[in-house]
Each structure stands twice: as C-alpha cells, then as structure tokens.
Amino acid sequence: AQSVAQPEDQVNVAEGNPLTVKCTYSVSGNPYLFWYVQYPNRGLQFLLKYITGDNLVKGSYGFEAEFNKSQTSFHLKKPSALVSDSALYFCAVRDGGDKLIFGTGTRLQVFP
Amino acid sequence: ETGVTQSPTHLIKTRGQQVTLRCSSQSGHNTVSWYQQALGQGPQFIFQYYREEENGRGNFPPRFSGLQFPNYSSELNVNALELDDSALYLCASSLPTGAANEKLFFGSGTQLSVL
Question: Which of A44, A94, A103 shows the shortest C-beta gap to B106?
C-alpha cells in the first residue's frame, strides 16, 4: 500500500531563513507525490506535484520540492521563509486512480 | 480561491441523527472526491464520484453514502451519526483527465460536530 510519513509535527523557522518540511514515501511503482497547504479555516491548496523524471519541482509561492529516489524522500523547501508561510503542510501520494493518501501534516511556524 | 463551494460551513448534530453535506465542483470538473479530516490528522479518502457513479471508496462504513448530480455537484450523507464522525469534511474536484498526477481543488470544508 502507498503511504507517506511526515516525521515532524512542527517546524519553527525565523523569517528570512530557509525552511525544509520533510516527507518520506513508500510506494509500489512510480510515485505521484504532492504537497498541499492548509491555512486556518480553509480547505487545502495545491502547492506542487512530482512528475517522473524531474527531481526538482517548483511550485506556488516560491516553494520547491526535491524528489530523492534513493532516500524515498520528497522534502518541501523554500529559500527564504515569510511569516505568511505559517500554516499546516501536507504531503500526499496518489493511490490508484482515485484517491490521495495524506500524511499527518507538519505545522510550520515562521517567527518575525 | 478555488471554485469549489461547500455548505453548510458548520453543523451541529446529535448522535444517531443523519446529515447531508453539499458540494459544488469547479466549472468543468466532473470528478468529485470527499475526504474526512479529524482534528490533528490528515484528510482521509471517503469516496469519489465520476459522471454520477461511485468510482472508488475508502475504508468507511456503508452509512457514509454519496450522490453526484448531472451538473456534477455532490452530496455526502452520513446516517446514524457517531461521536467519532466529528470532523472537517472536505470536498475536492478535479479535471476530467483521469491522470494520476492530476491535482485536486478543495473547498473550505464543512465542520461537523456530533454531540
């Protein structure tokens, strides 16, 4: 079965510093990986997705993610964090043609 | 903002009651999925509808049922509510490409509280 793991419940970073939110995956076959962000009282918003063959994926709001097959990881990164980036971040993997399997989420707190 | 709208935004029910949640998908999307997000957890897939037919189901009991209408809007019905059904229910629509890497467009959700 497909699964993703987000090992950190919370990540704290100072504004202007680089940030990384970690995700590891377990899949059979080609992985289709996603990052979504959830702001308070809002639904999930798509950030980026992994397409086979392109290990560095660029997404919305200056975020990017690096796919690493040998480490089975898909970490979310941003070179310079903003206070407005504070939110709940979910890694997800497509399971079959119908559903996404989400991780438990990582709360990102960016301090001024 | 996505074009996916859900109603109501908040709902309070008592154990044993039935509830209907509604979702209007983004224009041009004929695929609608429903997810349950319990407090502190990631969303969990309930089921998906494609062209008015159920197209996949997660590990939820039959008292969770759904409908999709010809205009591709959708309903989620939950019978015999239990306390553990308290959660944020999210609706998501997607483009009709069938591609596995297709992204989902989520609504803001319905917060259901079961007392």
Answer: A44
Q: Is A97 on the interface with B (CB under 8 A)?
A: yes
Residue A85: strand, helix, or coil: helix
* Cβ proximity of B102 and B30 under 8 Å: no
Q: Do B56 and A103 touch (CB under 8 A)?
A: no
Of residues B29 and B86, more confidence is placed in B86
**Residue B97 has what pLDDT?**
61
Cβ contacts (< 8 Å) between A106 and chain B: which residues?
A: none
pLDDT the model gives residue B36: 98
Q: What's the CA gap between A87 and A108, in Å, rounded?
A: 5
CA distance A57 to chain B (A): 13
Greatest Cα-to-Cα distance within chain B, rounded to the nearest angstrom: 41
AA identity, residue A74: F
B77 C-beta neighbours (distance < 10 Å), count: 13
Question: Under 8 Å CB-to-CB from A42, ≥6 apart: which residues?
Answer: B108, B109
pLDDT at position A51 is: 77
- Among A72, A1, A52, A85, smallest CA distance to B45 is for A1
Q: Which of A55, A30, A95, A22 is nearest to B48 (CA)?
A: A95
Q: Is A61 helix (H, G, I), strand (E, B) or coil?
A: helix
CA distance B35 to A86: 23
Please say whether the beta carbons of A72 and A26 come within 8 A.
Answer: yes
